[in-house]
Amino acid sequence: MAEPPAALRPSSGEGWSPFARKRVTQWQERAYGMLAERSGLGWKPREMFQQLTAGIVGPDLAGVRGAVGAIPLTRDEWQEADQAITDWRAQYVHDPATPFMEPWLQGTYDYYRAQAEKVIAHAGWSLTHRPLVTTIPSGDFNARTREIPGTGEAAVMFDHTLLSYLQEFAVAVAIDFPEHWWAIPWPGNLANIQISQSTNSASGYFADLLVSQVLYGTTQAVTRPVLNWRVYTAAALVAAGMRQFIVCHELAHLLHGHLGEPSQGRSEAELHKREYDADQSGASLAMAQVRRRDRM
């Protein structure tokens, strides 16, 4: 990983400052209000927010069973999985930081942020700003990181549909890839299940996702193919890796002090180099998290 700048300020304590909550709420309310007006609702930011988050659900076993059908797990294995979800919910799903944040999305982003910060702290580095990860209806997949003056905090705002789009993109990838590419050590009772691969199915589903995302700003209008257990698991692994990387990429910008460097007047090559540096450092952070989990 490229060495970060030497004069980095340490991260602040846990939680959001009151001023950060107020400022981010104002940004989100404006964005949802403008989207509501463009959609013909008038200035109704809360109604727009509720419409866009209505289809978002957190991880639960009922949803998993419904997505993949009968999964050949024992009762003890199901109970263990249920307990893991309960523990994750208790640690990361809480009252959202602002009225325009969906709790499951907040919890997911906070989880990946917390894992990355552990790696950064273990390496003896610190961030230029305390990252507050949240969402906003930006209309694109580029995160918007904005400094919150006087607080030492920075709002890292992802598009509100990004996680669901990445999940469905991972499904399209998993449908088409040969199973031996995954190198997943399947349990004995799953090892002999045959996977029906279909390039036409994967490419058609991906095309539908793009059209839905561009026209409607969501993938909820697209019907997901029926998946078997191994394709579903492969998709989950791919999606987790993508979620991990996008958060690490944005934290890498703070690691390198990019937020304090004005973009105006910089050449296209300089701006691209900042993104490449964040890609490199973000990928290293993500891989370090994987190695850290393997040692636990």
Account of the protein in words:
- A hairpin with a 4-residue loop joins strand 2 and strand 3 (153-159).
- This protein has 9 helices and 3 strands.
- The longest helix is centred in the C-terminal third of the chain and has 28 residues, at 268-295.
- Helix 6 (162-176) packs across helix 8.
- It is mostly helical and 296 residues long.
- Helices cover 55% and strands 6% of the residues.
- The protein has one domain (18-295).
- The protein starts with 17 loop residues before the first helix and ends with a helix.
- It has helices at 18-38, 45-53, 61-68, 75-92, 103-122, 162-176, 199-216, 229-255, 268-295, and strands at 130-136, 144-148, 153-159.
- The protein is globular and about 55 Å long.
- Residues 1-13 and 188-197 have low confidence and may be disordered.
- It has a 3-stranded mixed β-sheet with strand order 1-3-2, with helices on both faces.
Features:
single chain; 296 residues; mainly alpha; three-stranded mixed beta sheet; 6% strand; disordered N terminus
Please estimate the helix content. Answer: 55-70%
Number of helices: 9
Count all strands and give the number.
3
Average pLDDT: 80
Reading the helices and strands in chain order gives HHHHHEEEHHHH
